[in-house]
Design a protein that fits this description.
Number of strands: 7
Mean pLDDT: 89
Order of helices and strands: HHEHEHEHEHEHEE
Largest sheet: 7 strands, mixed
Structural class: alpha/beta
Number of helices: 7
Strand order of the largest sheet: 3-2-1-4-5-7-6
Low-confidence stretches: none
Helix content: 40-55%
Amino acid sequence: YTISVKNMARKTRRRKIIYRIIFELTQMIKPSIILELGTGLGFSTLVMAQASPNSKIISVDGCKNTLKEAGITLQKAPQPKNIQLITASFDDFLQTFSLPVDLVFIDGNHTFEATTRYAEKITPLISINGALVLDDIHWSKPMYLAWQHILQKQEYTLTLDFFDIGIL
């Protein structure tokens, strides 16, 4: 599966409202540590960094070429110093990751199995006032089923479905 940078950027421009929601959520939570699985071109990373300039942001992507493009995006921003970009598969990264996190943004490997697996692995690390954000929850039937499956978890006391993203 490949996608051009041009197509990724086009999709990104349509997401202004989603970015505003992510910005507001990030400001509300005041996270110490943010984990992003799926860096893409770095726009959501940048939104979270600008919303919470003192947060440490760890952003993981399996594609080194995509991370290179994200690095270019982030270098143009005034405050990217709090961002750590990591090239790794999400599964490999999550096997060793154990830091408590306040905000998790998952936007990658849009399959039921992968999405539910990532959510299951990361949920115990989310702080009591933290949030898990899933992107593209209505993108496909498997993603919608993953969203529905994760909604059943009792760890989450509030869920919001914004069609493009879901917040738990």
